Amino acid sequence: MTPSPNSLNEQEKLRLEGMMSYEEEAYLTGYQWLAGVDEAGRGPLAGPVVAAACILPKGLLIPQVNDSKKLTPKMRERLFARLTSDPAIYYAVGIVDSVEIDRINIYQATICAMLIAIERLKQAPDYLLVDGMKLPHPTLPCLKIIKGDQLSQSIAAASIIAKETRDRLMLDYHARWPAYGFDHHKGYGTEQHVEALFKHGPCEIHRRSFDPIKTHFAQSGEIASVK
After folding, report:
1. Which stretch of DSSP H or E encloses residue 175?
2. 35-81: per-residue pLDDT in tens?
């Protein structure tokens, strides 16, 4: 039986306290509003890249919060509800679609999505903890943390919000283009997805700058009208 997200045993408390070292260091330096920032969807062949920024209240430990990739879909769903329903938690998302990804490249699109999420926070942050990349924010100090979604509770919370938001978008896209199986692979290049891609051609949300779409379809201008 999966533990309740509201229960906190000693082992879980120690794990979460271990994920607060970057936050504690920033607090000691004098920062007050720390935003964890992460993204979902850099690698898929289809769909947007989604970033989230999340500010947790100082001292709050949320059971089971972890790198979103380490959680089951049910756990992510419950934690997403917990994170987004608490009025003491500030969060926002930024979404950049496949057309813009093709125009500016996935790296720049990821930066853009992160900056949008940060700008949309109702509480302005004064310090950024970012998973795996140095974010060129124009005014705020930014700490790049490799595997930050495993080492920082704030980043882990952002990773859950970004992943769940993107997964729900991909379910909506599945309803429009069911032939590709977006409900299963969420746009990633699985064998099922690639087979559907070669059978039907790319649809409107496929990234035409990504292979194999770039190599096999981009020059032809072919876009599927799959029902």
Report:
1. helix 153-176
2. 999 999 999 999 999 999 999 999 999 999 999 999 999 999 999 99
Return the structure tokens found at 113: 């999505």
Between CA 93 and CA 116 the distance in angstroms is 7
Distance from C-alpha of 92 to C-alpha of 114, rounded to nearest angstrom? 10
- Identify whether the C-beta of residue 182 lies closer than 8 Å to the C-beta of residue 71: no
The pair of structure tokens assigned to 180 is: 């590709």
Of 168, 223, 170, 178, nearest to 46 by C-alpha is 170
Output the CA–CA distances (angstroms, integers) from residue 118 to 132, 140, 195, in the order listed. Answer: 16, 10, 37
pTM over 0.85: yes
H/E segment holding residue 119: helix 106-120
The answer to whether the CB of 91 falls within 8 A of the CB of 154 is: no
Residue 33 tokens read as 């509003």
